[in-house]
Amino acid sequence: MKIVRLTINNFRSIKNAELFFDGHSLILGPNNIGKSTICEAIDLVLGPDRISRFPPIEEFDFYNAQYLKLGENEDEDPEPIPLRVEVVLIELSEEVESRCGQHIEFWSKEESRLLSPGELTLANPPAAVKCLRLETIGNYNCEEDEFEAQTYFSHSPTAEDGELNKVGKAVKRMFGFLYLRTLRTGSRALSLERGSLLDIILRLEGARGGLWEKAIKRLRELDIEKDAAHLDPVLTAIEERLGKYISSGVDGRATSLYVSQLTREHLRKTMAFFLSMSKDQAPVPFQQVGTGTLNVLVLALLSFIAEIKPSSVIFAMEEPEIALPPYTQRRIADYLLRSTTQAFVTSHSPFVIERFQPDQTLLLTRDEEASVSSQKISEASGLKSNDFQRYARRGLSECILGRGAIVVEGLTEFHALPVVARKLEENNPDLQPLDISGVVFFDAETESNMVKFGNFFKDLGLTTFSFYDFLNRKPENKQALIDAFDVDFEHEHKGFEVLIANEVSLDRQWDFLVNLRETGDNEGFQIPEDRPDDEELKKTVRSALKGKKGAGWAARLLESCSVEELPESVVAFLNKVYEQFPKSDFDHGADAVEVSLL
Predict the structure, then answer these.
(1) Residue 524 near residue 544, CB atoms below 8 Å
(2) Contact 153, 165 (CB under 8 A)
(3) DSSP H or E stretch at residue 370
(4) Which intervals of the chain form a coiled coil (predicted)?
């Protein structure tokens, strides 16, 4: 069973969204764009326990907490503003088809749309497949002063006009949807609270029969006072004082001590899963183990659930990289891709991102009206799948999650330009730091790669910048660079090392060489004892920087410069970047921050 379309209206941080999925989906985007809202929206429709809560929704489940539209006149009754989330499911199990047959429709896989009743002649596989639409509608009930939500079959041919058939919890459990929230998974995974992973496993395995009744009986029979005789006089004295005001009419003792309230719900909250992590360690509550270990335990439970319902489990998982080393991140991503019917994953980790193919990776965008849309990474031009996998850990993932990309042609520039940027930002508080703006440096490794990466980032909606050496190139090659970048910058020097030697203070260059020699960091590079003439000094610096590109020597030289001594070409280029991302009024200091206490 798979979700192929998700429609969201007026829910949480999203006013409108229509998103299409094709199997596993890695959902990327900057913070606060709506990644978690998408997972919460799916849970609202498919999660078996969400609607059972009281209340099932609250004020902030509505976009901007707007659940009422006030009338123009004060005496007019306000009009509720509903929230609505709809999913379209395909590859239905036989159990679902049998249970929900009257609600079945057809989905065109070629056109990614529902077929209308007049298009039944097109409802032939593989071009079209059976589908099921479910929607959750939430409202504020003014008369009852309560928030209400219910899940329905969007296609309800047997319902009364204007009505929809409700979807029960038993039907929702057929879908096997699991949502693993970043902040809640660890604290509840191995508890027996309703909806926890352990509770789901016990329910699926039918292993809970008699559990509560037998446990309550044994706890009631447990004589705590027997091993604590010193309590008896205290309890007897308490009873005597109670007897002066309340007559119990009970023969013997009327008070007892138990380790629980002896109710099913209380036991759910108090039962704890213990485990030992080493031979010399006594069992401890699972919450007490390390965060990384706890998340691995969650993975073990996920694999158990997937094996119980191999054809229908849909996972939504937020940031699996939290507190996990890279190799475990990769294992979790690989497990989800191999062993689940469909997985929705949000992440900022390159170790997770690299495991998904470009056509499985969705980048979210958001307009000023809070409408969210998505684009497959594979739809962006210029980059092949093997390029994506190769560069995922080399800054590509960081760029995708940002707002702008500065593409340079080599490692020297990649190390050096951020040094200049930091110095400028520290010297001028009116500049918006590039990190805060979401502008990322990217090493394309060669000029020949710059165009494809520029086009790729540009197609994803990033503001793109190029910085490269002067070269007598063909007009069509120069035009390709101009077209690939919003800001194209070719400095006037035939190499970045030449730029450094020509534009940085000669005193700083000599100090740099002396420091290399005195610290022993020159690694065999010959540095004269006495300062040579200016041209020979520049030649020596160019040779040092070219021979040690990977050592970060250019960045080291620039670190020693004052702001006034920084190379003019680099400063001029970075100023063009800052112009594209000016500092907003909100960022000019604490005086501009207004805090509201609700």
Answers:
(1) no
(2) yes
(3) none
(4) none
Tens digits of per-residue pLDDT, 42-77?
Answer: 999 998 777 777 888 999 999 999 999 887 777 788
For residue 595, pLDDT beyond 60 = no
Specify which residues 133 forms β-bridges with: 88
CB 424 within 8 A of CB 563: yes
Tell me how far the alpha carbon of residue 590 is from its chain's centroid. Answer: 29
Q: For residue 318, is it within any domain? A: no
Q: Please count the structural domains in the chain.
A: 2
Contact (CB, 8 A) for 83 and 137:
yes
Residue 324: how many CB atoms within 10 A of its CB? 23
Alpha-carbon span 117 to 58, nearest angstrom: 37
**Residue 560: which domain range?**
383-598
Q: Which range, 116-130, 240-254, 315-329, 412-426, has the best average confidence (pLDDT)?
A: 412-426
CA 235 to chain CA mean position, Å: 54
The Cα–Cα gap between 509 and 497 comes to: 12
For residue 200, what is the DSSP state?
A: H
**Final residue belonging to a domain, choices 137, 157, 174:** 174
pLDDT, position 237: 84
Q: Is residue 111 part of a domain?
A: yes
pLDDT, tens digit (0-9, with 9 covering 90-100), for 443-452: 999 999 999 9
CA 31, 32, 34, 36 torsion-angle sign: positive
Report the sign of the C-alpha dihedral through residues 546, 551, 552, 558, in that order: negative
Angstrom distance (rounded) from CA 273 to CA 157: 47
Boundary (domain end) residue, out of 174, 196, 229: 174
pLDDT tens column, 524-581: 888 999 999 999 999 999 999 988 777 789 999 999 999 999 999 999 999 999 999 9
In a domain, 193, yes or no: no
Q: Do residues 350 and 397 make contact, with C-beta atoms less than 8 angstroms apart? A: yes
Please tell me the predicted confidence (pLDDT) of residue 174: 84
pLDDT digits (tens, 9 = 90+) for 500-522: 999 999 999 999 999 999 998 88
Q: What does residue 566 show for φ and ψ, rounded to 5 degrees?
A: -70, 150
Give 350's contacts (C-beta < 8 A, 6+ positions apart). Answer: 392, 393, 396, 397, 398
Phi, psi of 147 (to 5 degrees): -95, 135
pTM for this structure? 0.79
